[in-house]
Every structure is written in C-alpha cells, then in structure tokens.
Specification:
Length: 497
C-alpha cells in the first residue's frame, strides 16, 4: 500500500501509530533526513526499511550492517528500520551505538555488502535520517536515493522470507585497533578533544590516547540533550569553545568532531580556527614527498590553494574540483583513484595507503596528529606556511527545499550570462563559471565566489575567497550578496561576514 502523504496522517491520532507518514523532501541527494516525528513517523521509517530491503534483494546484496548515533530517539528509529529490512528478507547485523565511519568500517571488517547508519549527522536534535551504502566504500547518491524515494512513496517494497537479526559485539574495539595499529607519536602532543556531547565522545578520546597524545577533554561525555552546543565543527559556537580551551590550557591544537564522527574540525595553538580545506592543503603538503604526482579531489566550496600552492605544484599533485556531498566525493575519489578528497565542511576521504576512501573523522584526526608530529613544528607554523588567502565562513541564506534547485538553476544562468557579457565581481573579470555544483565564479588573480544549493537543509550556500586581502574578499561577497538580494525566494542568512 502506498505511503500516505504526511498531510493526511498527523501526530496524536490512531492513524499515526499504524499508517506511514513521510514527507517526500526528506529524501535528499545522498542521504535521508527528516524532522522526527513531525515529518516522518516510525511506521514511515519501517516503510523505508522495507523499500531499502527490496532494493538490496534485487541487487543480490541482502545482508546489511546497521548502527545509530547517540540521540534519545535513534534506537527507536533504528528498530523501525530493522523491522522493515527483516520484512523484506534481509539479514541484519546490528552493531549498536556507532559512528558513521564505524558502520562503514564494519562493512569491510565483516565482509557485509550494505550498510545503514541512523543519524542526523550535525543537524540539531529533532532531526533523524539514514546514510546508506551498498557498494563499499560508497554511499547512496542521487540515483539510488531517487529510487528509494520512488519505491517508498509508491508502496513498492515487498515482503520476502529469510529475514534475520543478529547483534554484533566488539566492533568498536576492532575499529580502534585498525585505526591505531602500532602507530605512535614521537612526542606527547597535548590535544583538546571536543565532541559536543555527541557520539564521537565514545571513540575520539580513546583514539588520541592510544596514539600517545595527552587528551584534554571538552564536552566528551555523551549527552543526547546536547547541553553545551550542537556537535558541528563547522559552527562558530563549537569552534570558539575549542579556541577558548586551547588558549586556557596551552594545548598544541584542538580537534572537534560532529554528531556521527565523520567530520573533524581544527583549532591551532594560537586559537585560530582552520577550515578543513586549508587543513587539506596542509595534509597534502605533508604527503607530497611520499606521494608525488597524486591526484586530489576538493569540493567546490574549497580553497583555490589546491591548485595554486607551490609545494603541491612542485610535487606534481593535481586537484579536481567536484560536487559537495559525502556520496559525491567518495564516488569521485574512487573514480579517479585519488589519494584523498577534501570538503570544506570537514569531511575527509583518505584512500590508498591512508584509508579506505570513506569519510572518517578518526582517520583524519590520526593523520593530523602525524602531520604535526613529523613536522616538528606547531600547527600555527604549518598554517602560516600556506600562501595567504582570505575566505568567508560558509554562509547559508534561507531558500525553501521546494524552490532551491529551481532558484540555483536561475542563479547559474545569470552568472553564465553575466560572465559572457564581461561582468565583474569586485572589479575582477569572471574567467570561468564552474557549474558542476551550483556556480563557482573563478575570478582573475585566483579569487572566486560560490553559490550552490544546500543538500541537507532549506538553504543556499555562499562562500567567497581572495588571495589579495580581506577587503577584497568582502567586496566580492558584497557584489554576490547584492544580486542575491534581488532573488525573491532567497531569505535571511544564518550568519554574514
């Protein structure tokens, strides 16, 4: 029976306990996210599991590892998903409370073809969702999510015999053993470890201690009320908390992790927040001698230093700019045989002899520690060694989920036409408009500006960068912002520079 539209099933009614309520917009580009229970109920989650299980059976991959993040309602959501998967005839291996990369690791560790992680990632409480994969190390992209949406809303999931359930123990210990092995730091770095009371608190401090670091904990006790701030290392509230702790304790640097542990944020010994794309350039520099000629992938929000940095150029390293989104980036890293991929949001995709190609905040935390250890320099020294650029934070003006993609199509067309007519931003000629994911305007002199649709929230995404000065960066943003002010569907920003 097709799932009922969410407008016909409402909370606190008999139907809410027996019929599916699913908001279609929860099926996003590369995962699923809903406000719970306003946009999806447990019966709806069960329908998602039934449809996913039906797809897995069609692909002859009817075995799946599942886990959930540390939120008050995540266990109930996971159990509903598992019921649907078992109804579809799928063998379910449940590893319990987990990080997303722990679930990905378990696919390899236990040779299981598929995975489903119940998590709202960095979204605040009141959200839930699922990250899904069936072709390790990849997770579902646009095509697979579109099929899951079609099957779920169309009631196309089918029951089948053979479903089973098993609890798996010891996954966390095997994950830590795999991450650390016999790796040890040559000097006892003092590291602030911030997890925002999220799921990463059960792993990150142990990882750093086993590497030989002195851990200074910051909100590492899991608490699903998130009493201090939402665990999101891209948000200034968390970064400022990390900064304050570094300055208070004289730590070597701080590492911060999001709610499901697949992202990592960095604050250096001087209290400077280093965006993940700049950390990516620093890491690539540290790998240059051992991986000359390596291919890198960076998302379209990332710094132009991946192309212009002289150290990377001398090592023959090349960078491909690609679509933002963990599924898009994982796929591109695999397609190109790249050494690593970097997203400004804090996702890192380390492959080759560094990792398995999926995004793991713990793997990159290890590599950041080793980078500083090998360099025998401070984190701030490594930051200052980069050519100077001035970059805005990631800014997110409101735009409805129902309208944002049409709006972006119009914005892309505007800037393509604007560039063709010789238009400028802050007086700089637009040399190229990269349209792989929104519009990234490459300006003369190495500056750039990006406008794209957020994949996870009802927002656009705006980032600007200049290698010239902060004033130039602000002037570029002012010109982009002036145009966006004329687009009726674009609303207020979450923050501005």
């Amino acid at each position: 029976m097709p799932a009922r539209p969410h407008t016909t099933v409402t909370p606190n009614t008999p139907a809410f306990l027996s019929e599916a309520m699913i908001t279609p917009t929860g099926f996003r580009e590369y995962d699923a996210r809903w406000r719970f229970p306003e946009e999806i109920n447990l019966v709806g989650i069960q329908d998602v599991g039934l449809s996913l299980g039906t797809m897995l059976r069609e692909w002859d991959k009817a075995r799946i590892v599942v886990g959930c993040d540390y939120r008050e309602y995540s266990l109930a959501v996971k159990q509903a998903l598992v019921l649907g998967l078992m109804d579809a005839g799928v063998e379910v291996v449940d590893i319990g409370v987990a990080l997303s990369p722990l679930v990905y690791f378990s696919q390899f560790d236990r040779d299981i073809p598929a995975c489903a992680m119940v998590t709202a990632s960095h979204n605040p409480n009141g959200w839930t969702g699922v990250k899904i994969g069936a072709d390790r190390p990849l997770t579902f992209g646009t095509e697979e999510m579109g099929r899951l949406k079609e099957m779920t809303l169309g009631g196309l999931g089918r029951s089948a015999p053979g479903g089973s359930y098993r609890r798996e123990t010891g996954a966390m210990e095997r994950y830590l053993d795999d991450l650390v092995g016999d790796t040890r730091l040559s000097r006892p770095l003092r590291i602030v470890c911030a997890t925002g009371n999220g799921t990463a608190g059960i792993v990150a401090p142990q990882l750093l201690e086993r590497l030989g670091a002195e851990v200074i904990p910051l909100h590492t006790t899991p608490d699903y009320t998130f009493p201090n701030y939402n665990p999101n290392p891209e948000a200034m509230e968390m970064l400022h908390s990390m900064r304050d702790k570094v300055l208070e304790t004289g730590a070597d640097f701080a590492l911060g992790f999001d709610g499901d542990g697949d992202r990592c944020g960095v604050v250096d010994d001087e209290g400077e927040e280093i965006f993940a794309d700049k950390v990516g350039v620093m890491l690539a520099r540290s790998w240059a001698a051992s991986h000359p000629g390596a291919t890198l992938v960076a998302d379209v929000k990332s710094t132009g230093l991946f192309v212009s940095d002289p150290v990377l150029q001398e090592a023959g390293m090349t960078t491909d700019y690609w679509k933002t989104g963990h599924s898009h980036m994982k796929r591109r890293v695999k397609e190109l045989g790249a050494l690593a991929g970097f997203e400004k949001s804090g996702h890192y995709f380390l492959a080759g002899d560094l990792g398995r190609g999926y995004d793991c905040g713990m793997v990159v935390a290890r590599e950041i520690c080793l980078m500083v250890d090998r360099a025998s320099q401070s984190m701030s020294d490594l930051r200052k060694a980069l050519p100077p650029v001035w970059t805005t934070p990631t800014m997110s003006p409101y735009c409805s989920d129902l309208e944002k993609y049409d709006v972006i199509d119009r914005i892309v067309a505007h800037f393509e036409d604007f560039a063709a007519r010789g238009g400028t931003l802050a007086g700089k000629k637009i040399e190229q408009v990269i349209t792989i994911n929104g519009a990234r305007m490459q300006l003369e002199g190495g500056a750039w500006a990006l406008v794209r649709a957020s994949s996870n929230t009802p927002n656009l995404v705006v980032v600007c960068e200049s290698p010239e000065s902060e004033a130039d960066m602000r002037a570029i943003f002012a010109d982009v912002d002036a145009y966006l002010d004329s687009v009726a569907e674009v609303g207020a920003y979450d923050q501005k520079i």
